[in-house]
Amino acid sequence: MHRIAITGIGAVTPMGNTFRSAWEAAGRQKSGIAPVTHFNTTGMPWKVCGELKNFDPAPCLDIKERRRLDPFAQYAVAAAHMAAEDAGLISSDASRITHHVLLENGGVIIGSSRGGIGTIEKALSRQHSAAGTQRKLRLSPYLMPSTTISMAASYTAQKLGLRGYCLGISNACTSGTNAIGEAFRLIRAGFAGPVLAGGTDAPVCRVCIEGYGAAGALSKISDQTASRPFDRERDGFVLSEGACVIVLEEYNTAQKRGAKIYAEILGYGNSVDAFHQTRPLAEGEAQAMNSALTSAGVMPEDVDLISSHGTSTPVGDIAECRAIHHVFGDRAARIPVTAIKSMSGHMLAASGAFETACTAMAIRQGILLPTINLTEQDEKIRLSVVREAQSADIRIAAVNSFGFGGVNAVLVLKKIH
Q1: 205 belongs to the catalytic site
Q2: Are 272 and 407 in contact (CB under 8 A)?
Q3: pLDDT single digits (tens) 197-233
Q4: What pLDDT is stored for residue 92 in this prediction?
Q5: Were 86 and a residue from 8, 213, 283, 308 both cysteine, which residue would form a disulfide, CB within 3.0 to 4.6 Å?
Q6: Residue 104 half-sphere exposure toward CB, CA atoms < 13 A
């Protein structure tokens, strides 16, 4: 059976516009959460979010492309370009970009929860403003193609010359993790690869913040400490934007070309609660975790780290804790648990991919990232939550992602010896 290696990582996040800068920010416990600037929040109880700062797509996209593509696709292209460069599959100089021959038959799978919702909102707002006037506003011919979920994957393929396989996934907040899991399955089944996989979302707009807020999912805390996974005073997640893409390759192929390897993906689990639109079910989450461990061929006692979904919602954090106890029994309270969303906020599809990337780097460097804003841990959450960056020998790690509709995705990663 084919082994699958992670050989490249690219990301744009509220914590930094490269994966390296975001990783370093996480180690310093630096939050990417700040007041909303994309629109006026007067009269709204939700005041903070995770926005990209000074993001510039110019190295990857020209001015026409930037006008025609929703930000979610722009973020994906930028992250994918950085991931391919990190993997040694493209190289750039002052005059041109050179693509590795492997890319031509490679693939791309990118997930998004909300696609181009911000662009759609702007178009509808302009239409509404024009209503009742003498002028008729013409919608852009690029509105539909630029906002469709699959555009992140297909435009990435176009820019990088990937002609072997292309798939866009929308599976709520697990979309990015699902994309990586399906890429894992694709290569394991014999696809030569490489496959660029991950998630992207640009949901920081009025309709998303008011929509998630109306569902009772968002925090009403109005400062950087709003995202508080597992804390007694948590009251919801913080909506964020961003993208993360990783490069997956067949292990022997990666070794032969001398690629650096962050970690190996051992297993993938996918389940659905079949229970409720928004309320999570611990048993369904546990099923995905057990499925991933079975796929990986490892036992619960082999796991050294859990990268939690950890959104900071009162119900969600409790359900995840119960799921972890279902799977790990007596060890559940001793396994180190991290919650990256305490710093990044919830980037929807991008979060699972980013947390997978951070877990791979944690394994490679032997570092546990901290969970911030945890002042007093909820007494109902009996987990060993990491509060400060620390050294650790991480051999096997699990990454949890859960979403609306009761969709669950879990990855298992392994250290390369």
Answers
A1: no
A2: yes
A3: 999 999 999 999 999 999 999 999 999 999 999 999 9
A4: 74
A5: 8
A6: 4
User: d(Cα 8, Cα 287) in Å, to the nearest integer?
Assistant: 29
Check if 173 is active-site.
yes
Residue 216 tokens read as 């009772």
When pLDDT is cut at 50, 70 and 90, the band that residue 134 belongs to is low
Q: Enter the tokens of residue 288.
A: 């995905």
Residue in 49, 60, 166, 173 annotated catalytic: 173
What are the b/e assignments for 179-208, b being 16+ CB within 10 Å?
bbbbbbebbbeebbbbbbbbbbbbbbbbeb
Determine contact, residues 78/155, Cβ cutoff 8 Å: no
Residue 256 identity: K
What pLDDT, on a 0 to 100 scale, did the predictor assign at position 257?
93
Report whether 194 contacts 87 (CB < 8 A). Answer: yes
| Closest listed residue to residue 253, CA positions, set 344, 333, 191, 202 | 191
Q: What is the DSSP letter of 16?
A: B
Distance (Å, whole) CA 192 – CA 251: 11
346: annotated active-site residue: yes
